[in-house]
Amino acid sequence: MFGRSKLPTTAFLVIVSLITSFRFGWADSWGPPPKEHWSNDRQFVLFVSELAWGQSRLVLKERGQNGFRSRWIALHPTPVQAFIPDDGRYVVLRDQWGQVGYGKVLTFFGPDGRVLASYTLEQLLPFDEILEVPTTMSSRW
């Protein structure tokens, strides 16, 4: 007759789960990073060999008559995506594997594999726009 209702407990749990999910963000799921990034004409490929979590050896190779030859080698955080123009002269890396939107979000490599420029999200967007970027546990999307 004087038994407690389950409704307040259920409502409390739903409210707590909603509050904590917004406060702490949503979890991310990261599979293995891509090991190859190709130019559109398939003449150039950037091979990514992960050395340790987040760090990789990058090798830009060019297709020739007798197979591939290395253009340059660099150590860099593992990229999410790489863009290589058809002339293979420059390489642009987007984001770092496992932490999109943090650290260097754009990195530009020159013909010799040296970093020409690198930018954080804070250098590219005004603060009020960064606050509107959707976030998860490890990334800003």
Please tell me about this protein's structure.
The chain is of the alpha+beta class and 141 residues long. The chain has a domain at 36-131. Helices cover 19% and strands 40% of the residues. It has helices spanning 7-24, 121-124, 127-131, and strands at residues 36-38, 44-52, 55-64, 67-77, 79-83, 91-96, 104-109, 115-120. It has a 4-stranded antiparallel sheet, with no helix packed on it. It has a 4-stranded antiparallel sheet with strand order 5-6-7-8. The radius of gyration is 22 Å and the shape is globular. Mean pLDDT is 83; it is low at 11-25.
List the helices and strands and how they pair.
Layout (H helix, E strand, L loop, with lengths): L6 H18 L11 E3 L5 E9 L2 E10 L2 E11 L1 E5 L7 E6 L7 E6 L5 E6 H4 L2 H5 L10
Antiparallel strand pairs: 1-2, 2-3, 3-4, 5-6, 6-7, 7-8
Order of helices and strands: HEEEEEEEEHH
Question: What is the average per-residue confidence, as pLDDT, rounded to a whole number?
Answer: 83
Strand order of the largest sheet: 1-2-3-4
Count of discrete alpha- or pi-helical segments spanning 4 or more residues: 3
Reported for the largest beta sheet, the result is: 4 strands, antiparallel
Structural class: alpha+beta
Estimate the strand proportion.
35-45%
How is the quaternary structure best described?
single chain
Based on Cα principal axes, name the global outline.
globular
What helical percentage do the residues reach? 10-25%
CA(first)-CA(last) distance: 52 Å
